[in-house]
Every structure is written in structure tokens, then in C-alpha cells.
Amino acid sequence: MTIRTPTRDLDHPTRDGIRLEGVLHALSDPVRLHVVRRLADADGELSCSDFDLPVSKSTTTHHFRVLRESGVISQLYRGTAKLNTLRRSDLDALFPGLLDSVLAGARSETDRSSGA
Amino acid sequence: MTIRTPTRDLDHPTRDGIRLEGVLHALSDPVRLHVVRRLADADGELSCSDFDLPVSKSTTTHHFRVLRESGVISQLYRGTAKLNTLRRSDLDALFPGLLDSVLAGARSETDRSSGA
DNA sequence: CTCGTAGTTTGACATCTGTCGTACTACGAT
DNA sequence: ATCGTAGTACGACAGATGTCAAACTACGAG
């Protein structure tokens, strides 16, 4: 029994490596903001294909990478799937209230445009 | 006495025209975030030249325009100067807590890198 | 009127960003 | 071993972005 391929893992910034500007930039894209909202609602692990994004597979990969590299989400492989989670505790520790106000803002903005 | 040249004014989005993604994008640039922080500290009107930005005059103009068009600041001419103010009440009404958490996050990040 | 100061405009430029299709790898199921 | 599904890698490409210098406009001071 050879050493198991260590389910090749991905580079994540450490908590201290998360930069505010990177987070804001990551959240400033509609597709990525949508992903983050879904992730916050689910409050669990979702694979990349659980999101029905209006972009191609390669673009999806790109957006998830931006989110991971900016420290907004963490990703890990399980089998053929890639599970995504919000790095809520890291974000809350570094930038208290930021994620919640962004999520609330996004929600109310959606309500404004759909409702009246 | 002819009608005074109406101190040519600038296009600002109305409160309802301010988009979350635009605000996040505007805040995700170091130069612009710096401007916003100074503006929040001063809590008053500052002319563009009150900031000692590490970029040229034309780039400065560009950044102030991005901030204005995204709804983060308002600008008005007074004589030869252009006065800038944070649109705090609009932002707080639309995205409660967002501006404060960004400002606090920026402050703590600065402290982390300079302090220890 | 003339000058200086504040900011704009224009055009250029390199880089970044979001997007795609196609070919590829990794893993689980059969 | 083979196949299908999940996701990646690699160009490619158009458009946005941050940057500058140089020429310009607008206003106040003298």
C-alpha cells in the first residue's frame, strides 16, 4: 500500500494573510457575490456544481479560485467533488460585521429590485 | 448681474442608484480606500489636493470619479477647489454597518502591519 | 489682464479581469 | 478496464482598470 495521494490540497491564505482589499475585490463581482450568498444561506459545504451559475465551467473554476485566494472561502476535495465553505470565523475575526453587512446589503438590494 | 455660472456640477447617482457591487469595487483599491478613510476621519469636506496621494494628478481625478460615480462620495466645486464628502447617510441607509466595518477593518489591518 | 493653482481631458500603455472552448486529469461506479 | 462526472489547465480574446504625461479649462488673486 503506497502512500495515498494526499487528496491534493489547495493553497489558502492563512488568516493573517487575508487582505481587506482582496476580500472587497472578490465580493465586487456579481457571480462571486452570488456564490457567497448561497454559501452563507446553506451554512454548510456545497460543491461547485451545486451552484447553477450562468457561466461556463472554466469561468466557474476561475471565480472559485478568486474567492479562495482572497480568503473568502475554503475548498477541499472529497472524491470527485470540491467542497466550498465560507471562512466565516476568519472573516468575522478580521473584519467584524463586514460579511454580515455585505450579505444584508445584497439581500435588501435584491428585495428592492424584485419587490418594490 | 447675470445668472451665476451654476458652478458646474457633477453627476451623482441618487441613493437608489447606488449598487453594492459598485461600492465594493470602489473600496477595493488602495488609493481609494485611503481617500475614504481620510474623509471619514475628517468628517468634513476635503479638497482633492488635501490628500497627498502617491499618484499623478490625472490618476487622482480618475479615482475621485470612481468614488463619486459609485456613490461613495459626493463632490462639489467651490471656486477652484473641489470639495469631497463621504455619502455616509446614504451608505448607512442602504448598507447598514458596511462602511463602519470596512473602516474598522482597514484600521485594524494598518495596525497589524505597523504595530506588531 | 495676467498669473498661478486646482482640477480635467485626452490619448497612450501595460496589466488585470471575466469570459469562452477544448483538451486534460482525478476520482467513483460498474 | 472502462466510462461518466467533477473540476483543471491552457490559450485566446475583448473590455475594464490603473497609470502617466501633456495640453487644456476654470477660477481667484494681484
UniProtKB/TrEMBL annotation, chains A, B:
Residue span, HTH arsR-type domain: 12-106
PROSITE patterns the record matches: HTH_ARSR_2
Pfam families the record matches: HTH_20
Protein name in the entry: Helix-turn-helix domain-containing protein
Organism from which the protein derives: Streptomyces meridianus
